């Protein structure tokens, strides 16, 4: 359990504990300082990743925790680029500054959308109302066309029904003709030959035509026609109800499906309209930026400690060994 915090710091920063434990207190303090700075950034980005996954990706609790841990992994790997560089180049520092600026803006945007949640909800009312007003005419026109098409079809079906009823009134019954065919054999001629009589037969078909009165077949078509007309009238009533409540329905749907970009647009409107909100947002950006730059500033202000000198010494020894081995092979 000895030096447990130092071991954790080595795991976080990438330092080799086997080398560090033989170094001075200055090296230990450097690890502690880098560990504290990275923990601040990691805790902050765990919260940002967790909140973003919960609010905008609608993930479950394990998914949100995984998103927060993934944010921590990314931050740790980024910070190691600076910590493990003994003499960071100006290009590495420049890109780290650019990345810190981008990450500070992203972090401030996500955090501010949580802090300004109530204000965003108030502003969202007018934002959603404007979007609904822009799409309402096309939606209304589409419903009116569907209602008009149903009216046309219903009128045709009712006219067809009226024609059936008129025909049924005039012809309650109709005459059905039935034809029956019966065959029989009749003798044609009898021939006597060699004392024997031979009779020739032929087949005759007797056709009997009968007529009966049956109900008009159009009577059977009326129930299905009434059912079709009733279903169409229900559809028309539903369409009229949708047309009557289309604006509240659209507003409810758009409020339920407001995403990250919509809330970002609303927040930008708020910042452009309120100097107080803009100043607060800028403070958050600066806060995130300074935290992101904490490790870089710590690295830039520190002088080389004995840990780094040991690492460089080991590297030089290994290089000389390889060079000597190369000469021996030649």
How many strands in all? 2
The low-confidence parts are none
Total count of helical runs of at least 4 residues: 12
Shape: elongated
The fraction of residues in strands falls at: 5-15%
Percent range for helical residues?
A: over 70%
Mean of pLDDT: 80
Write structural notes for this entry:
By secondary structure, the chain is of the alpha+beta class. Among the domains are: 189 residues, no CATH class; 40 residues, no CATH class. 75% of the residues lie in helices and 12% in strands. Strand 1 and strand 2 form a beta hairpin. Helix 3 crosses helix 5 and helix 3 runs antiparallel to helix 11. The longest helix has 54 residues. The chain is elongated, with a radius of gyration of 46 Å. It starts with a helix and ends with a helix. The model has no long low-confidence stretch (mean pLDDT 80).
Task: Provide the fold topology.
Elements: H1 4-13, H2 17-20, H3 25-55, H4 61-83, H5 90-115, H6 117-170, E1 173-193, E2 196-215, H7 221-244, H8 246-256, H9 260-273, H10 275-292, H11 294-301, H12 306-329
Antiparallel strand pairs: 1-2
Task: Throw out a few tags for this protein.
two-stranded antiparallel ribbon, 330 residues, elongated, alpha+beta
In short, what is this structure?
With 330 residues, this protein is an alpha+beta fold. The protein contains twelve helices and two strands, in the order ααααααββαααααα.
